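It would be a great kindness if you could assist me with a short task in structural biology. The full record is reproduced below for your convenience:
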Amino acid sequence: MGFRANITEGFSTVELLVTLLIAAIFLLSGYALANVVLVESGDARAKIRAQILADEYVDLYRQTVGTCSPSTPIDAQSVSREGLSDVVVTVTISCPNTQITTISKVSVQVTYGMPTKSIVIDTYSASS
């Protein structure tokens, strides 16, 4: 009696299934990573747009402030801005030092999106 070796070529069924499972895991993790990158970059673009809007309001009100008089010239006003949804702007002028009435603090809050996110920018303005 001679010894005869059983030689098989290719993958066995179990090896093939394991390989397919590993490939599926790699595909799913790649998809999840791409999805996170897209969502995060979209959030960053929205935040930049909201910050630019807040800067525009800060510049506008900083130039118009005279002697400090606390006020809220814009109180939760809905605003339309491309690339942002549910945008609401509030502008508040306060007096940080009641002894010096020539200095005013201009604060702009922009809320946007769902879930709601917020940007607040403050600056000081001195009148002559």
